[in-house]
Amino acid sequence: MFGLFKRKPSEPVFKGNYSGLHTDMHSHLLPGIDDGAPDLDTSVQLIKGMMELGFQKFITTPHIYPDLYPNTRQTIEQAHTLLMQRLQEEQLNVTVKAAAEYFVDEQFPERIDQGEQLLTLHKNWVLFEVSFVSPPADLADTIFKMIVAGYQPVLAHPERYSFYHYKKEVFQRFKDQGCLLQVNLLSLLGYYGKSVQETARMLVKEQMVDLIGTDLHHIRHLQTMNHPLLMAEVDALLQSGKILNPTL
Q: Is 103 strand, coil or helix?
């Protein structure tokens, strides 16, 4: 097995962790406000585990999904404050920023039209997702609204939407319109199924991936991430220079 990591002198050294990514920009670490960490103890456990895997900064992105997780800036900031207090008690010196993962429904364009200040990943970057059942008919219009309002759209886990599988031209349209594409780390390992994995690998091959996120929800995700072949694959992907996580 160790022969997998033999290298030529010009090849990058395999780090054995995710330190090259530096920042995880998609996770559900805030306690008790969505389908991620249910409490502070779990939040701390997940963050400690992620730090052991080499991550140094976290931009956590609780769902804002009115029908299931009707979070607001206030509920997210309150949960973030509780988490930061607990991390201070644990003497964990780590940066955790709170943003959001917005679900695009009929209400989302109204947020933009009304001038709501959206929670951003970095500068003006907004993470959004769509239904896993079918895409919004007016998604292109919504993306345009975001850009006109001054936001940089970031589409979460495009490889997980079955209606887009293997459709390179659809992903290219997103890129051409100005979207950044964020692939889930575990998609590369086949955690969500073969077709998701193959679509993620297609995006990698076509150099369409801008960001990698763990989309961490629970301990099973963390345990699955502890895989040397996946770490090596991420190291290789970083060599393209196109992955933006280290800049966050």
A: strand
Pairing of strands 63-64, 152-156: unpaired
Name all domains of the chain by residue range, CATH numbers in brackets.
18-242 (3.20.20.140)
The DSSP symbol for 12 reads P
Contact 124, 154 (CB under 8 A): no
Spatial distance between the Cα atoms of 29 and 217, rounded to a whole number of angstroms: 7
Contact present, 100 and 76 (Cβ < 8 Å): yes
- Is the per-residue pLDDT at 3 higher than 50? no
Which residue in the block uniquely carries the two structure tokens 């502890």?
226
Query: How many C-beta atoms lie closer than 10 Å to residue 168's C-beta?
Result: 14
Token digits for 163? 């209606």
Q: What are phi and psi of 19, to 5 degrees?
A: -65, -25
Q: Distance (Å, rounded) from C-alpha 216 to C-alpha 186?
A: 9
Q: Kindly state the DSSP code that residue 53 receives in the 8-state scheme.
A: T
Q: Distance between CA atoms of 68 and 66, rounded to whole angstroms?
A: 6
Confidence tier at 16 by pLDDT (50, 70, 90): confident
The phi, psi pair for 207, rounded to 5°, reads 55, 45
pTM over 0.85: yes
Angular region, 65: left φ>0, alpha ψ -120 to 50, beta rest: beta
Q: What is the distance between the alpha carbons of residues 108 and 143, in angstroms, rounded to a whole number?
A: 11
